[in-house]
Structure formats: structure tokens, C-alpha cells
UniProtKB/TrEMBL annotation:
Source organism of this protein record: Gluconacetobacter takamatsuzukensis
Keyword Transferase: yes
Higher taxonomy: Bacteria, Pseudomonadati, Pseudomonadota, Alphaproteobacteria, Acetobacterales
Name used for this protein in its record: Aspartate aminotransferase family protein
Cofactor(s) the record lists: pyridoxal 5'-phosphate
Family matches, as Gene3D superfamilies: Aspartate Aminotransferase, domain 1 (3.90.1150.10), Type I PLP-dependent aspartate aminotransferase-like (Major domain) (3.40.640.10)
Length: 450
């Protein structure tokens, strides 16, 4: 029997044992892919897509068929945004090199982005560039362990923080057979659908403190608590918004540092606050970011308080050949400018509320929609067998994800039972695009109910 967590990794994946059932050129390409790239790679959907072009909120297959992309967080300002494309091409035509030469664009970008973090990070924070969010989280943990002299890290139960050796060791969402690090401790998912919100904060604090005690009991202690403020892999939980500030206070009292992983929640994804942790009133010690930072070009970063990184900078040389290279910075600057000038975080709030309201209307007709949550253009729709037991229904979620794919609408699923529809479109999504998503979701739910 497939375990819940294994199911979560496979719900939106093509079954490679069925490759013989695929004929034609796409089937041949899947077979070649399996032979050339190996078994660890996954393809989305029971019926995989062959995508050849993107524009705005749309993807196009080899036949020119259009798909509404309601899932892609990487291209926050839309597929192939002309300003980002132009910035990348222009810089690549001039220079692409590392950060060991004095260059104006990287300084200009740092000056543009640092004030938006607020608190101590805005006052005296530093920004350190990497290529991926995994690298940013890896670097943050190294700094935390150097700063504290301890190794212990606390995460949520279904967290995903990367695929380097260190970050995979604190990413239980990779699957039950992906080992966690010796000094990693988990706290339960802050499930606002099943845990009363008025008890959530003291309950969560108790869980964190218990794991700190356990780390100390085993002789090492706490280096860091790292958290994605929208709890993406846990199941998309946006409330209560006063959950994390008390945790940050507790972590610091016990000698650790608080790391806000904004790889998924940041850059306006969760609305006007721009950074997810700011909704919680947290002043983090470090913030990591990646994915949408360059709208598809690999660029990521860590922002860290000057006092936290001072000893690390004194004792350890940091260099990243491609992190913060000239082309990456051009992509990041263009993306940041577009987010601000086109007011895309505000659009995320407006259109996200519209999508959640639309699913709330559907909930009245389809009681298998147990809960609707999220903030900005990060929407979670939890599917259950019935609203009384609230038993997760991952099989239904899988049918919806794949049924929408067949209707040319792309979403995914998340959570330990893979029963939460994950709707996370580019931030240029409009209410018209949302209507198309909702129309197909309603038609599919009617079909499945029949």
C-alpha cells in the first residue's frame, strides 16, 4: 500500500511503468528521457505534457495547443516577459562574469531590494548571492551553525527546503526514504483546518520548545528554526498570522536563529507584504529567496543581519562562481522592477481573493471541498471524503489535477496526503484567467460527482 508521503510525491506524476502505453513521437521522447536522465526524474501528470513555448500565463504544446498555467511560481511576472528577456540578452551580449570584479549592477540591485525587508535586515543587512534556493538555504544553515556553535535545526513535518545534501536532510517532503539529518527535529503542521485557531499559537510554541529541549538533551542544541511562512509543502496554511513572531522570540531566547525561507512565499506571491514573513510581524535573522527572483533565470540569495554573519565572514571564505553573475543580476533587476511598477503584489491580493471566493461558492455545491485557504496568489483547496470527518481525499485531488490538465488548466497538489489542490499562478493572472480556472473546476466537479 502506498504511504501518504509517497503518494504526495507521485500524485501529479507520470507512472514510468506505463511508458509502453504511450505511442508516437512523445512516447518515444519519454522513453529516451528515462534512458538518458535516469529514474530519479519525474514528469507531471498521468498524461505528460510536451511544452515548447510560454507567454504570460499560457504554455503551448508541440501542436500549438494552449494551457492555462495556474501553477508556475518560477515565472512570477509571466512566461517570457519581454523586459526580462531583453535584460538577459543585452547583458549576455556585454559580459557574464562572477562577483570578484567591481560591478555597478549588483550594488544597484542590493540597494533596491534591501530596504524592503524591514527591521534590522533593512538597517544593516547584507545580501549574498547564490544560484538556487537550495544553495541559499544551505548557506543560511552553515552560517547559523557557525554563529551558534550548534547543529540542531527545527522544521515543520512536511517541509521542503532544498536538494543539496544539507537541505535534503531537512526536507521530509522528498519522501520517507529520503533520510533526515541527525540533528533535524520536526514539529507538526500548523493545520488551521483541524486545530482551533485560538489555541494554535500556544500549541505550536509548545511543539517547538519540546524539540529544542530534545536537541539539548542529546548534547548539541539549537542552531536554527527554518520555516516557509505559507507552509507550502505542509498544505498551504496562511493563518493565524501571529503564529511565527512568538516562535522567533523563543528560538532566540534558546540561542538559535530564525530563518525565513521565502523561496515560495516571497516576491509578492503572498500579496502586498511582498515577503510572507512580514504578514506574521517577524523580524528574521536571515531570509532566503530564489525561484521567481529572476523569472526563470537561475538566481537566488540570502539576506542576513550583519552581526549574524560577521564571524562567518571572518573565518570562512564565501565564493559562488555563478551566484550573482552579471546576467543573473540583470534578470533579477528587471523582475523586481516589473513587480513594483506593475503592482503585481497588489494584483496577487485582488485576484487571489477572487479565486478563493469562487471556490467558496463551489463549496456550497460540492461538500468534498473541505477548506479553502491561502493568501495572495497562493491558494489551497482541501479535498475531503466528507466535511464532517474531514478525512483527506488524495485520490479525488489526483483526479481533479489530472482532469484539469485534460481541460488545459494546470495546477498541482500538496500536503502529506496530497489532497490539497495547489493553485499558484504567475502574478500577472487576471480575474478573466481565474474565471477560466473556476469554470473548468466546476465542470469537472460536476462530472466527478455524477
Amino acid at each position: 500500500m502506498t504511504s501518504a508521503r509517497q503518494h504526495a510525491t507521485m500524485v501529479n506524476a507520470f507512472d514510468p511503468s506505463r511508458v509502453a502505453e504511450r505511442d508516437g513521437e512523445t512516447g518515444d521522447m519519454i522513453a529516451r528521457r528515462m534512458r538518458l536522465l535516469g529514474p530519479a526524474y519525474r514528469l507531471f501528470y498521468e498524461n505528460p505534457l510536451r511544452i515548447e513555448r510560454g507567454s504570460g500565463v499560457f504554455l503551448y504544446d508541440q501542436n500549438g495547443e494552449e494551457y492555462l498555467d495556474a501553477y508556475n511560481n518560477v515565472v512570477g511576472v509571466g512566461h517570457a516577459h519581454p523586459r526580462v528577456v531583453e535584460a538577459i540578452a543585452a547583458q549576455a551580449a556585454r559580459l557574464c562574469t562572477h562577483t570578484r570584479y567591481v560591478q555597478e549592477p549588483i550594488l544597484r540591485y542590493a540597494e533596491a531590494i534591501l530596504p524592503g525587508f524591514g527591521g534590522q535586515l533593512a538597517a544593516d543587512g547584507h545580501i549574498m548571492f547564490t544560484c538556487t534556493g537550495s544553495e541559499a538555504n544551505d548557506l543560511a544553515l552553515r552560517i547559523a551553525q557557525h554563529r551558534t556553535g550548534r547543529n540542531g535545526v527545527i522544521i515543520t513535518s512536511e517541509a521542503y527546503h532544498g536538494n543539496s545534501f544539507l537541505t535534503a536532510g531537512l526536507s521530509p517532503s522528498l519522501g520517507r526514504r529520503s533520510p533526515l539529518g541527525q540533528w533535524v527535529r520536526q514539529v507538526p503542521t500548523p493545520d488551521s483546518y483541524r486545530i482551533p485557531r485560538d489555541t494554535m499559537v500556544p500549541w505550536f510554541l509548545e511543539q517547538v520548545e519540546r524539540q529544542i529541549d530534545d536537541l539539548e538533551r542529546h548534547g548539541n542544541g539549537l542552531a536554527a528554526f527554518i520555516c516557509d511562512s505559507i507552509f507550502s509543502s505542509d498544505g498551504i496554511y496562511d493563518a493565524p498570522a501571529d503564529l511565527l513572531a512568538p516562535v522567533a522570540d523563543l528560538v532566540r531566547r534558546r540561542g538559535g536563529v530564525f530563518i525565513a525561507d521565502e523561496v515560495q512565499a516571497g516576491f509578492g506571491r503572498t500579496g502586498r507584504a511582498f515577503w510572507g514573513y512580514r504578514r506574521h510581524g517577524v523580524d528574521p535573522d536571515m531570509v532566503t529567496m530564489g525561484k521567481p527572483m529572476g523569472n526563470g533565470f537561475p538566481v537566488a540569495a540570502l539576506v542576513v543581519r550583519s552581526d549574524i554573519v560577521a564571524g562567518f565572514g571572518r573565518d570562512i571564505r564565501y565564493f559562488n562562481t555563478f551566484g550573482g553573475n552579471a546576467v543573473a543580476i540583470a534578470a533579477a533587476q528587471a523582475t523586481l522592477d516589473i513587480l513594483r511598477e506593475e503592482k503585481l503584489p497588489e494584483n496577487a491580493d485582488r485576484v487571489g481573493d477572487y479565486i478563493r471566493a469562487g471556490f467558496a461558492r463551489l463549496q456550497g455545491r460540492f461538500p468534498v471541498i473541505g477548506d479553502i485557504r491561502g493568501v495572495g496568489l497562493y491558494v489551497g483547496v482541501e479535498m475531503v471524503t466528507d466535511p464532517v470527518s474531514r478525512e483527506p481525499d488524495g485520490a479525488l485531488a489526483a483526479r481533479i489535477v489530472n482532469g484539469l490538465r485534460d481541460r488545459h488548466v494546470l495546477i498541482s497538489a500538496t500536503g502529506v496526503h496530497a489532497n490539497i489542490l495547489k493553485i499558484r499562478p504567475p502574478l500577472v493572472f487576471t480575474t478573466g484567467d481565474a474565471d477560466r480556472l473556476l469554470l473548468h473546476a466546476e465542470a469537472l466537479l460536476e462530472e466527478l460527482a455524477g
